[in-house]
Amino acid sequence: MAPIRPSPETKPHYMKSMFGRIASRYDLLNTVMTGGRHHAWRSQALRWVNPRDLETALDVGCGTADFALALSRYRVKHTVGLDIARPMLDVGQEKLIRQNMRDSIDLVVGDASRLPFPDASFDITVTAFTLRNVPDVELALSEMFRVTRPGGRMVSLDIVKRNPGILDPLLRIYFHRIMPLLGSLVAGDREAYTYLPDSVDAFLSTTELSNLMKRVGFKNVRSRNLALGTVAIHMGET
């Protein structure tokens, strides 16, 4: 299958449709494809940024609310999770009900490129596996910078373009052959899990994302690589 690269104009609609289709199987596929490590990566990101006892948090591209729920374990008083795909939020809402978290976490439909919040609304802004999927990464980062209060923090977790290495042939087989096959077998949607590895090829490296964060205004930008360099945590301050 040819690489799937939606244009900037069509990407929001494509994301909304694609993630809507796979919402009911999204968590299962994440667990299968990462060997369950995606929860540990979120935990590691939050341990690094340490959002304990903050008043407000925003999870951009919250999906099924895993990052928002992880924030609650740090006693963040109120978290807003935003996602473009309503079916993903519906799955997340079911989790909030099961875990009795509806009073401290709100889930809303919205676009990472046009965050519907006033300036300096949140003590911390987090995002996981989202920046690869926005039409304009710089714009999305600028919006996260805008809504984070001065002296606040932002943390990103995402799959990044890694530097060439001896493991590249094996990783390419996994991303471009095994992942679409698993997507077809488990979620019944080969196209979605063909797009996802293609989105990594079109994304930024760890260093490039750090530089872009600095360009939009984040200070003290730091990064850590995980999973053989395929995953990166980035942190910046406002």
Describe the structure.
The longest helix is centred in the N-terminal third of the chain and has 24 residues, at 11-34. The protein has helices spanning 11-34, 37-49, 66-72, 86-98, 137-147, 168-187, 192-201, 206-216, and strands spanning 56-60, 78-83, 105-109, 122-128, 148-159, 219-226, 231-237. It contains eight helices and seven strands. Strands 3-2-1-4-5-7-6 form a seven-stranded mixed β-sheet, with helices on both faces. The chain is an alpha/beta fold and 238 residues long.
Keywords:
single chain; 238 residues; alpha/beta; Rossmann fold; globular
CATH architecture: 3-Layer(aba) Sandwich
Return the CATH topology.
Rossmann fold
> Beta-sheet strand percentage?
15-25%
Helix/strand order, N-terminal first: HHEHEHEEHEHHHEE
Number of β-strand runs: 7
How many helices does DSSP assign?
8
Order of the strands making up the biggest sheet = 3-2-1-4-5-7-6
Largest sheet: 7 strands, mixed
Count of domains = 1
Gross geometry: globular
| Rg over CA atoms | 17 Å
Low-confidence stretches: none
Task: Estimate percent helicity.
Answer: 40-55%
CATH top level label: Alpha Beta
Task: Compute the separation of the termini in Å.
Answer: 42 Å
Short description:
The protein is 46% helix and 21% strand. It is of the alpha/beta class and 238 residues long.
Please render the helix and strand layout as text:
Layout: H1 11-34, H2 37-49, E1 56-60, H3 66-72, E2 78-83, H4 86-98, E3 105-109, E4 122-128, H5 137-147, E5 148-159, H6 168-187, H7 192-201, H8 206-216, E6 219-226, E7 231-237
Parallel strand pairs: 1-2, 1-4, 2-3, 4-5
Antiparallel strand pairs: 5-7, 6-7
Helix pairs in contact: 1-4, 1-6, 2-3, 5-8, 6-7
